[in-house]
Amino acid sequence: MKTSREEQTMAPFELPRALTIQHVEDLMKQLDALPAEQDLALDGQAVELVDALGVQLLLALRKRQQQGGHGFTLQQPSEALREALNDLGLADALQH
Is the pTM of this model over 0.70? Predict the structure, then answer.
């Protein structure tokens, strides 16, 4: 049985190119299929399109992970993702 924090972290989930209203529902289904009792790391380097709903999804995921006592990290956010976070005043919200 895995007990250490490191062993409970899965490989980063790669976010898609588009993190927009048209894609959030499908992405949420994929993320919901991941084991809930593990830390969640998201790789944001491929994101080229992002809107407020996409950012809201990331915030909701972080909150869900924290409420479950699990970690959340956003790794390698793309320029588009960083700009969207900055535009919404949330640049630091997903980096901690």
Answer: yes
Domain boundaries, the chain: 13-87
Burial class (CB in 10 A: 0-12, 13-18, 19+), 44: buried
Per DSSP, helices labelled H in the chain are 24-32, 52-67, 79-87
**Domain 13-87: which CATH number of 2.60.120.280, 1.10.3660.10, 3.30.750.24, 2.30.30.370:** 3.30.750.24
CB 9 within 8 A of CB 43: no
- Full pLDDT tens readout for the chain, 96 residues: 344 444 455 789 999 999 999 999 999 999 989 887 899 999 999 999 999 999 999 999 999 999 999 999 999 999 999 999 999 999 888 875
